[in-house]
Amino acid sequence: MRRRIGAKQAFTAWAVAVFAFLYLPILVMAIFAFNKPSATSVAAFHGSSICDIPPDQVGNITVWNGFTSCWFSAGLHDPTYIPAIVTSLQIAAVAAVISTVLGLCAALALARLKPRYRAPFDAVVYLTLVVPEIVIAVAYLIFFVQARNYFPAFPPLGKSTILLGQIVFNASIAMLIIRARFVGMGDTLEEAAYDLGSGPLATFRQVTLPRLMPAIVAAALLSFTFSFDDYIVPAFTNGTTNTWPIVLYSAVRFGLTPAVNALATIMLTVTVLAVIVTAIVLRRSRVRASPGQEPAPGLDIAVGLR
Amino acid sequence: MAVAEQTETGAVTAPGPRRKRSFRPHYPGWLMAPSLLYYAVFFLGPLAILVAFSLATQQGFGSLSYGFDIAQYRLIGNSLYTTIFARTLVMASVGSLLTIAVGYPLAYWMARYLTTYKMLALLLVVVPFWTSFLIRTYALKIILDPHGYLARFAGIDILYTKYAVAVGLVYNYLPLFILPVFASLERMDWTLIEAATDLGARPFTAFRQITLRLTLPGVITGALLVFIPMTGEYIIPNILSGGNYEFVGNVIGDQFNQAQNQPFGSALSIALMGVLSVFVIVYILFATKEEQFGA
Q1: CA nearest A211: which of A174, A186, A191?
Q2: Whose CA, among A65, A264, B55, B142, lies 20 to 30 Å from B38?
Q3: Facing residue for A15 by CB, picked from B27, B109, B134
């Protein structure tokens, strides 16, 4: 008996350590969003706000120099970061809508198809998930440049090419989430609707769609998040367009101020809220899934492959 | 998914009187046409042109002629690049093993000892995975900074080395490993452990002979699930090694960013996919086997 309690405590200690490992860096980043530039650089600076100090002069900002909240307003007024964030939001919104619609249509058509006919399509879907992102990113770069060479109507590298590239992966994720839910909920209610004289369209609108809604919402939110956070595909297909991950990346590699921490903290907060909403939606969908079925595996699939 | 299919087909072939189903809800097949078309043009198209590029011949700066030139693939045999391939696979293996070592006890703790807070713990595991990969890697970089507290007071000064890359791999992929392992631990029948200990097995023996064996499929699934993307990793080595310790992915990126040797970059990409496909096939074989035995 004594031994078992000891084991439990040891495991709990390990778990605390692992959660600390997962969350401390993020916490430290958030705390350092309130960090002042180093004392020497503040002394040497003659502007009105210490948060106007350029990246190469802020000194050592990985140790605590004192509290200031001005990085948040500096970040939110930054001429590089804010337009990039707006661009990312636009791309992510369109990507989420298109991916979810594509995924929904494919899920409906595929879910009750014979495995024999479904297999080739599934193979392509899984291929979109396992091909390394760097590989597909360079392939898009070649493809989009060549497409414009041969078809002048094809859009140049920019927002539209980023979007075209990102939709592939997101549509696959959306399809898997929606199909899992669709298969999981069975077809008894649809059969009942047909028996009661409802046509195909009315059945879809009144029976199928409402019950698919949690999965559709989850798929859309996830596509949005994945698209918004994606660095690799935009980095190769952006042309001269800047997205938030692109400016963040170059800031991380080539010098930054705590304004980046401030913006990253805001982003993280928004994402975490979105995740919690998604989790709640998915849990509700789990409760309402038909009896005798496995709970909707949306969560697992959602994090299954990036 | 598979469960539903099995019961459905099982019901059809089951003998005995049953109501004949007059209804098969079918959504029209053309609904998959848009995504089929999309994948064909914007996914298979780029992959095809990647293959074509990898076999093309570079003629001067930026112009090339298509053909069947395997010179680029020969170049990969150069020890410079085989080293990078080997390094990538070794690092992905080390990263996966470390992830197992860190993640398995946590999943075990969640499944075995938690009741009320199980969902909360699961959410805590999942949340980092849904937040920006880049932001998390950046957060790790702050902690590991040579001017930071960890380096100055704990003597852990590993930024821009392979150790930082390994930490980054574990840090970013841990949630992805924990989920399937936790799922297999959740499915396990814990009364087996009670029975074993009642029959005199020591706790560790019971763990080794029952828990570990029953959850091994989950562990292998999880390990491959992190190994595969780790092999194609780009961001972590770039940020945490500062370009000192490149993976294959980074070399590919360099061919398109700086070197402008697109045929060689394409050949590297195809080679990387070839290496990865071995592991993907292992994973698929393994997953279908696991499904068959219902583990």
Answers
A1: A186
A2: B55
A3: B109
